[in-house]
């Protein structure tokens, strides 16, 4: 049936999306809160410890989000099966997603450990290099359980059961803060480990998240119809390959975005610990606000996928447009908030005056890209609901690796062999200008693609 933009229809769709998204939002904020706790606690030890966490977390974030994107195929697969009423197929899909998680997690752990070789080429102080490398070595122990957790996370969200994500993430945050407090500062007789304490805490919490989700799936009534652990099942390679074809482009899409942010963190390391620390704080707070449109996007995958599974592309288009509007609407509010309270935000994270001042300046750029960041993540998630993943991958690669990073390098580093480079390096500010423009390109191209894709599918269904 066609869906018109009447107030009652918009309200109904917005409420349905919000019911899916708000537990995801709380869970995402709690997860990002773990990184915030790491930065805030080490920020009150020493600049060197904070720099080690910043650099190690940059590599960790790149690997982690690439794994998360690769595992997101299960969201779309299960959502379509729910919409089609094929509940008997869901347990098989989840079991195969868990086999996929084992392989993806192992590969990610190897790559994470190898990536520490990059630190040898970043002009780092030996102490910072050693601490950042050890941070990555320790935290990589959480990649296999993280991949498995994301498989169960996607399954749960796509059957409209998102509250476990929230509860488990909150418990994980509390556990992370407690372990950090003991290990970072050396309480209760524990050694004062600084950045390495953060790594141990995060790895432990990832294992806790997986075990907690397994228990929840086992005992909650919502999973009984589709419970995936009724029997053992060996890998079914055609099914895993199908999920990889759907998930790898999503993983590359996530990599394209987060790797640029991570690369910027690595490239500005040459400007000293004050610049690195201020950049990391501004980026961390931006990640907090980004969780709202991302949560809407995760809900949109379920709403769009279920509509398409039941053969209703008109409702899928309507859900896409409402979700995109909600994401951009929130972004307006977050942009104003960041611009007005940037000095107070910086003061929460650090007591260093130089870091606070530079961080407040960088937060102005963060305020600028709120709208484009929200639009691009909402549009890309809706497109994934259509089981289309390659086009967003190409768009993200162009926007981030073709625009954001090259422009950031020109402005931030001012290489003398480029004629239009500034006379002096703009340092972190130049890289953030590149990020703003790259996100804008991604937002425009992805939103345009979504509008055309959803319209084409809706018209095709009407003509049949």
From TrEMBL:
GO terms for cellular component: plasma membrane. It is found in: Cell inner membrane. One of its GO terms (molecular function) is xenobiotic transmembrane transporter activity. It is a multi-pass membrane protein. It comes from the Bacteria. InterPro entries: MATE_fam, MATE_MdtK, MdtK-like. One of its GO terms (biological process) is monoatomic ion transport. Its main location: membrane. It holds the Pfam family MatE. Coiled coil: none annotated. Keywords: Antiport, Cell membrane, Ion transport, Membrane, Transmembrane, Transmembrane helix, Transport. The chain crosses the membrane at residues 57-78, 98-119, 134-153, 165-188, 194-217, 246-269, 281-304, 316-341, 395-418, 430-451. This is Multidrug-efflux transporter. It comes from Pseudoduganella armeniaca.
């Amino acid at each position: 049936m066609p869906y018109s933009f009447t107030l009652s229809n918009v309200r109904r769709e917005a409420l349905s999306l919000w019911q899916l998204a708000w537990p995801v939002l709380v869970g995402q904020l709690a997860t990002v809160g773990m990184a915030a706790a790491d930065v805030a606690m080490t920020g009150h030890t020493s600049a060197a410890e904070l720099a080690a966490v910043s650099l190690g977390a940059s590599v960790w974030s790149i690997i982690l989000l690439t794994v998360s994107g690769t595992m997101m195929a299960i969201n779309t697969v299960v959502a379509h099966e729910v919409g089609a009423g094929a509940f008997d197929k869901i347990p098989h899909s989840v079991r195969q997603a868990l086999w996929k998680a084992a392989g993806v997690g192992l590969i990610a752990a190897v790559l994470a450990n190898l990536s520490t070789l990059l630190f040898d080429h970043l002009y780092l102080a030996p102490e910072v290099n050693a601490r950042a490398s050890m941070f990555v070595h320790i935290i990589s122990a959480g990649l296999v359980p993280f991949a498995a957790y994301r498989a169960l996370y996607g399954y749960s969200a796509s059957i409209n059961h998102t509250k476990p994500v929230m509860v488990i993430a909150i418990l994980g945050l509390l556990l992370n803060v407690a372990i950090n407090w003991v290990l970072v500062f050396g309480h209760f007789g524990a050694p004062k480990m600084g950045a390495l304490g953060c790594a141990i805490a995060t790895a432990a919490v990832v294992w806790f998240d997986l075990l907690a989700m397994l228990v929840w799936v086992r005992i909650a009534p919502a999973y009984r119809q589709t419970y995936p652990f009724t029997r053992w099942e060996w890998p079914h390679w055609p099914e895993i390959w199908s999920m990889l074809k759907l998930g790898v482009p999503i993983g590359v899409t996530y990599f394209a975005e987060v790797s640029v942010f991570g690369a910027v963190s690595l490239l500005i390391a040459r400007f000293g610990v004050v610049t690195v620390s201020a950049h990391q704080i501004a980026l961390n707070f931006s990640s907090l606000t980004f969780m709202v449109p991302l949560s809407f996007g995760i809900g949109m995958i379920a709403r769009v996928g279920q509509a398409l599974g039941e053969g209703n592309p008109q409702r899928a288009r309507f859900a896409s447009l409402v979700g995109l509007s909600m994401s951009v609407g929130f972004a307006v509010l977050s942009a104003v908030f960041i611009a007005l309270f940037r000095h107070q935000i910086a003061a929460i994270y650090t007591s260093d005056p130089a870091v606070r001042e530079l961080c407040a300046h960088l937060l102005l750029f963060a305020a600028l890209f709120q709208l484009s960041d929200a639009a691009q993540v909402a549009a890309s998630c809706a497109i994934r609901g259509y089981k289309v993943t390659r086009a967003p991958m190409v768009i993200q690669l162009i926007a981030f690796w073709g625009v954001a990073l090259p422009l950031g390098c020109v402005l931030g580093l001012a290489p003398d062999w480029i004629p239009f480079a500034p006379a002096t390096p703009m340092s972190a500010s130049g890289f953030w200008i590149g990020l703003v423009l790259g996100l804008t390109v991604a937002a425009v191209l992805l939103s345009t693609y979504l509008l055309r894709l959803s319209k084409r599918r809706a018209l095709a269904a009407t003509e049949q």
